[in-house]
Amino acid sequence: MSNAKGNFQLRLIKGSVESTKGIRYRIVNNKLALYLTKTKGYISPENVREWSRLGWYIESDDVLRAKAMFREICEGQLLIDIKEAQKQ
Q1: What does R_g of the chain's alpha carbons equal in angstroms?
Q2: How many angstroms separate the first and last alpha carbons of the chain?
Q3: 7-30 pLDDT, tens digit each
Q4: Pairing between β-strand 10-13 and β-strand 57-60 as defined by DSSP bridges
Q5: Is the pTM of this model over 0.85?
Q6: How many other C-beta atoms can be found within 10 angstroms of the C-beta atom of residue 58?
Q7: Which of 5, 16, 56, 80 could form a disulfide with 52 if both were Cys (CB 3.0 to 4.6 A apart)?
Q8: Which of 54, 52, 59 is CA-nearest to residue 82?
Q9: pLDDT tens profile 32-51
């Protein structure tokens, strides 16, 4: 089994800073896999559809890369809004 880890950070924004979740990526068996950093739970297209329905969105320093990653795990569709990270 081939595993690779990435440090590229994405954030799932659920309305407030306190409810923000970090997202990381791995390459598992030559396939991209995104997961939540605290729970290590892998993200499925069903998760992404539900987050979008609830009005959540993804925030990233590299929007184009984030969009490409989410399209890859969601069978070519961008199912959630991805926004530029706010500078602090």
Answers
A1: 12
A2: 40
A3: 566 888 887 666 788 898 888 899
A4: antiparallel
A5: no
A6: 24
A7: 80
A8: 59
A9: 999 998 888 999 999 999 99
